[in-house]
Structures are given as C-alpha cells and as structure tokens.
Design brief:
The chain is mainly beta and 332 residues long. It contains three helices and 20 strands.
Length: 332
C-alpha cells in the first residue's frame, strides 16, 4: 500500500482551507488536500529508544513493545483545535495486554484539569479480534470517563486504516477511514467537560496487562514480542499556540474564528449510525452500575437502551467476558 499520499477529510474551515470528507467516491464540496508530514517535520520521540524506528524517509514510524519498553512519539507543537490523523496497522497474532494509543492530551501541563481525546486499541488473544475504545476527558474529569468500545468490521492488523480526530470549539468527531463513529457536541450539558485547552498529539504502544484484555485476565506474553504498530500518513493541521504560554491565541496566520461546525451529510450520519448500531459493544451512557444517574449529555432512547445491560455492555457481549473487571467496570 502506497503511503506517500494526500487525502481529503471532514468538511470544515481552517482559515481559507476547506476540508471535505470523501465518502463512497462522492465529493460533498470543493476539496483541498492535506499533506502528510514526515516525522522530523512535526514529531519528536518521547520514549522507547530503538523501539521507535523511522522508515521511508520518516514517512512511516514503527513503534514496538518488548520486555524492556514500549515506545512513543508526540507532536512538537501544542494545538488548540484542529484535525489530527494517522494511518495505523496493528500488531498481528497474539497481542493480549498490548495497548496502542493515538490521542490528544495536556496532562503534562494541566495536572489537575487536563483534557484528553483518545483512540485506544486493545489487543487480544489469538483468534479474537482487537477492540477499539474512544474516550473524552475535559477539565480534569478523569473520574467521569466517557468511554465507548467497539469491535472492528475489518481486520486492523491486515492493512493500514486511517484514524482521525476532528476537534473544534463546537464539536469533536472520531473517524475511521472516511466514516465518523462518534460525535460529541459542545453543549450546555457537557459544560466544562468539553475539552477546551491546548493539547499535544501522542502515539504510543505499551503494556496494559492489568486491564486491557478481559479485565486483566490475559497479560502480555513476551514470547510473541516484539509487538509492532505501524504509523503512516501523519497529519497535524490546526491552531498551534506558544508552549511557554498555552493560554495564548493561535499563531499568526491561523484564524481560529473560522472553525465552523461540521454538519455530517446524510450518508455520513447513516454510516455512523450503522457503526454504532452494529459494532459498539459498550457505552458509558448505558452503564447504570457506574452512573446511577446518566451523565447530562446522555439522551435516553428506549429502542437503543433495551439493547444494553445495566453494566453498559451490549447484550450478547457477556458470553465473551471472563475474569476481573477493567478500569471501566466492564471486561471484554
């Protein structure tokens, strides 16, 4: 698969640049292309020594986990809103306990009031598929997780797939390839829990044996190491701010007021509804054991709610569960 490409994504205005998602070959509006970055142009290694490897002139990054360490990299800049994307291929074969993460966070700057937007990929035993978890923290709301989990409708170890986060003052959208899978609106109900401070982009691989697979029942087995996650088609496009003054405005040349709300097309919303109906396996909004009173942004839908148990798990998932509970009180 050729990874040195530019591509088109969700419709929004970043200054004069209009980005649009291309779905099923149909172009919704005029398209400008986003160029991918080489590693040295936008990122820096944060840990892992030789477990981070650059290929194709820095256009592809391999992160590996072995008995000594995992690995990770981060964006060189802080961003206040933007579009962040990477094409990722996950480790194949036995990967229980392995966690691959692609996320935005400012926990290193705001220790008690940090924001975070997560893609977390949770490894599994041989013959069982990887799971995907998305999460949102705002203003230090780490005790109030907004996790959702999904199974994949493709093999994420077989080829590269694009995972993207759109973050504007008005909304957050998680995408897989060109399909939105989750949307969070900056509503009165969300309040200060909507991420609003500059964040750094991170990509990591690490040992999550205590919780990642069946609530910690299956741990990383280093006989199968190294576990290698591949990253390519790296995109950083957004409002950069002064790292010495994170509360500063966007760098000159970027008009943050031009960030517009993305209205999903009928096709996009249909695609998102299909993913959520057929592949979402856990939602915090249905977890009555954890939240006896649903969080304010959770809307009650009798048709959907009846598909989930009081632990937030979709009926039918329990036959896959064994062992201790994970950090979201639901093991898979």
């Amino acid at each position: 698969m050729e990874m040195g490409f530019s591509f088109s994504f969700p419709c929004l205005f970043f200054a004069s640049l209009l980005l649009c998602i291309q779905l099923s070959g149909a172009i919704d509006a005029p398209i400008k292309s986003l160029q991918t970055l080489s590693f040295d142009d936008g990122y820096t290694q944060i840990f892992g020594d030789s477990n981070l490897m650059l290929l194709r002139d820095g256009k592809t990054v391999h992160l590996s986990l072995d008995e000594k360490t995992g690995a990770g990299f981060a964006s060189q800049d802080l961003y206040l809103h933007g579009f962040f994307s990477a094409s990722i291929k996950l480790p194949a074969d036995y990967a229980a306990g392995v966690v691959v993460a692609f996320y935005l966070s400012n926990g290193d700057v705001y220790h008690k009031t940090h924001d975070e937007l997560d893609f977390e990929f949770l490894g599994n035993v041989r013959g069982r598929e990887w799971r995907l978890q998305t999460n949102v923290y705002g203003n230090g709301s780490t005790r109030v997780g907004r996790e959702e989990r999904y199974d994949f409708w493709f093999d994420p170890t077989d080829d590269f797939h694009q995972y993207s986060i759109l973050w504007t003052p008005h909304q957050i959208i998680f995408y897989i390839d060109s399909t939105p899978i989750r949307e969070i609106r900056n509503s009165k109900a969300m309040g200060s829990a909507f991420p609003s401070k500059p964040m750094t982009l991170y990509a990591t691989i690490w040992d999550g044996s205590t919780w990642a697979t069946l609530g910690g029942r299956y741990k990383v087995n280093y006989r199968y190491a190294p576990f290698v996650a591949e990253f390519a088609a790296l995109v950083l496009h957004g409002c950069t701010v002064d790292p010495l003054n994170p509360l500063s405005s966007c760098d000159e040349g970027f008009d943050s007021s031009s960030l517009a709300t993305t209205e999903l097309s009928v096709e996009q919303r249909s695609g998102m509804d299909s993913v959520r109906a057929n592949h979402m396996t856990y939602s915090y909004c249905h977890d009555r054991k954890r939240y006896t009173v649903p969080l304010p942004e959770c809307e009650f839908d009798p048709g959907t709610s009846r598909l989930y148990g009081d632990d937030g798990l979709k009926f039918g998932e329990r036959k896959h569960r064994r062992g201790k509970r994970s950090r979201i009180d639901s093991s898979f």
